[in-house]
Write a structure and sequence with these properties.
This protein is α+β, with helices and mostly antiparallel strands. It has helices at about 10-30, 45-55, 55-65, 95-105, 130-140, 155-165, 180-185, 200-210, 215-230, 295-305, 355-370, 375-380, 380-385, 410-415, 440, 495-500, 515-520; strands spanning about 1-5, 5, 70, 115-120, 145-150, 170-175, 235-240, 245, 250, 265-270, 275-280, 310, 320-325, 325-330, 340-345, 385-395, 395-400, 450-455, 460-470, 485-490, 505-510, 525-530, 535-540. The chain has 2 domains: about 40-240 and about 535-540, Dipeptide-binding Protein, Domain 3 (Dipeptide-binding Protein, domain 3); about 280-490, Periplasmic binding protein-like II (D-Maltodextrin-Binding Protein, domain 2, 3-Layer(aba) Sandwich). The protein is globular, with a radius of gyration of 27 Å.
């Protein structure tokens, strides 16, 4: 039946559509779920700038580190090109600026901004608790900030970082490779989980890493620093000078700008076959180059693994300081997008397999394919740099890059580029610690040492042993100097110093306190070694709007 050409069925269908559309409109305009936590004041840039202005870096350097650190006003260390003093614009202990900024948000002496400041408590960073106390004191001296100190051991600290529950926290960095490229990205690094929403820095960074003009790169890094001062996502605090203390008979200690620990250079006047190194440090998780991204993990990789090129120990890591290792020579195309490496012959893995170009391709394809979120390949951006690796001969490999990347040799020299033994490094998963089996725990065996013991309890190292690798390609050159290195872990700096003074260890490195270093400099029973440091510490602000979100 129809009326005026419109059937009853049509009318019913139209009404049904209207009802459905109205229902969908009601559904999609429902109010969003309420926030799951308190509003985060640090989401406002004025709060971040106010806190930054109130920091007293000099007090931390002088009272905590006793002059063994210096204030830092750029995320790029002093002495490296690209360094500026940009953060001086906000001052140190600039309480006038702090109070002005916070007054705009209603904070004053009667209504103070209250923040939780977190620090690492298990010795991974030097004198963290003392630093935190100094920063608390300087912030509260503004009269408008109240600071609650909180801490966690290193393992828990990383979990907290990833869970985004620390509003303000102290963090540290040492270089993957020696270039401003390896520092500037810290202002927005995704693995810091800071939720910084700024987008202006990254294009400048991409331009800088692809430019062969040093002056242009320096200008771009200065622009990045200026944006960081404006937004304060991450705030540089200080750079730390490294120290090691040994028995007087120990030589060969090299603490250079790479922050690497060159164990193969260590020796004694008595030509002892064994040295004992004491430390409060520990491997963070694994010693798989596809995952390890911590000082101690890289230390073990560096001494048991091999890279195509190395940096000459004790050098400034300049362009002339890259030396052959598993590669004997190399060349780059004029546009710096194609790098060809000729490989060393007669190099053998522990199982007797001869090293060749396929192992280079396998190692890089594997680590980039795994793309572990907290791993160095993701952190450094290997897949942003490398397009493909081509085997062009048994002993020749070619890297095809996505862009002109000036510090490429630096990336190849870092421990994330160590060549693994496919027998112990499955393509589809990372190599984890295997209790009682150091060999199965370590995919690296082309280096100067072999890992023969690795003992852990509750995820923290107790003792490791490295023994000279008889198959190392330059063993006939006298490397390593000392055939056996035993590494013993101590609970804290006090225990480490006592072990040193008792003669239980030959070397103490990471972490004695600044007071220990000063005291031991006058002790004739030990020798203090001072290094050149590129280790920095900085403050990270959590910027998400609600802390429970």
């Amino acid at each position: 039946m129809s009326t005026k050409g419109i059937s009853t069925t049509t009318i019913v269908a139209i009404l049904a559509v209207i009802i459905v559309v109205a229902g969908l409109g009601w559904y999609f305009t429902l109010p969003s779920a309420p926030p799951t936590g308190p509003k985060n004041p640090l989401a406002d840039v004025r709060v971040r700038r106010a806190i930054t202005a109130a920091l007293n870096r000099s007090a931390a350097c002088n009272t905590v580190f006793l002059g063994q650190a210096e204030p830092l006003y750029s995320i790029i260390p002093k002495g490296m090109f690209g360094h500026t003093e940009a953060f001086k614009a906000l001052g140190d202990a600039n309480y006038t600026l702090t109070r002005t900024l916070l007054s705009e948000l209603g904070y004053n002496e009667a209504h103070k901004l209250e923040i939780d400041l977190w620090y690492e408590s298990s010795g991974h960073y030097p004198s963290s608790a003392d630093q935190a106390l100094v920063y608390k004191s300087s912030l509260e001296a503004s009269g408008v900030i109240k600071v609650n100190l909180k801490s966690a051991d290193w393992a828990s600290y990383r979990v907290n970082r990833n869970s985004e529950i620390m509003p303000v926290y102290i963090y540290g960095w040492y270089p993957d490779y020696i270039d401003p490229d390896d520092y500037a990205f810290l202002y927005w690094a995704s693995w810091l989980h800071l939720n910084y929403a700024g987008t202006e820095m990254e294009p400048l960074y991409d331009q800088a890493r692809a430019s062969t003009d040093a002056a242009e790169r320096e200008r771009l890094y200065a622009e990045i620093d200026e944006l960081a001062v404006r937004d304060c996502p991450v705030v540089p605090l200080l750079s730390i000078t490294p120290y090691a203390v040994t028995k007087p008979s120990v030589g060969g200690v090299v603490l250079d700008v790479t922050m690497n620990w060159h164990m193969w250079l260590l020796e004694t006047a008595e030509s002892k076959d064994t040295l004992i190194w004491g430390t409060t440090d520990s491997v963070e998780n694994t010693i798989d180059p596809a995952q390890a991204y911590d000082f101690f993990g890289w230390c073990i990789i560096q001494n048991t693994g091999g890279t195509l090129v190395e940096i000459r120990p004790g050098s400034a890591a300049g362009p002339e300081d890259y030396v052959p290792a598993l590669a004997t020579d190399w060349s780059a195309s004029s546009d710096l997008k194609t790098w060809t490496f000729n490989l060393r012959h007669d190099v053998k893995f522990e199982d007797g397999t001869e090293f060749n170009a396929t192992h280079v391709k396998y190692s890089f394809d594997r680590s980039m394919g795994l793309a572990i979120e907290e791993g160095p390949q993701v952190g450094i951006g290997y897949s942003d740099i490398i397009d493909s690796i081509e085997v062009t001969g048994t002993y020749q490999v070619v890297f095809h890059l996505k862009m002109a990347f000036v510090p490429f040799l630096g990336v190849l020299a870092c421990q994330a580029s160590s060549i693994v033994n496919p027998k112990y490094a499955p393509e589809d998963k990372m190599v984890e610690y295997v209790e009682g089996d150091a060999r199965a725990s370590n995919p690296n065996d082309l280096g100067r040492y072999r890992l023969t013991k690795w003992e852990r309890v509750a995820g923290k190292d107790v003792e490791l042993t490295l023994e000279a690798n008889p198959d190392y390609w330059n063993a006939t050159g006298g490397w390593p100097k000392t055939k056996k290195i035993i590494i013993k872990m101590y609970s804290d700096a006090t225990a480490l110093r006592l072990a040193l003074e008792a003669g239980d260890i030959d070397i103490a490195f990471r972490q004695l306190t600044a007071t220990d270093i000063v005291d031991l400099q006058t002790n004739p029973a030990v020798k203090v070694w001072k290094g050149v440091g590129a280790q920095i510490q900085f403050l990270v602000f959590q910027e998400k709007e609600f802390m429970g979100s």
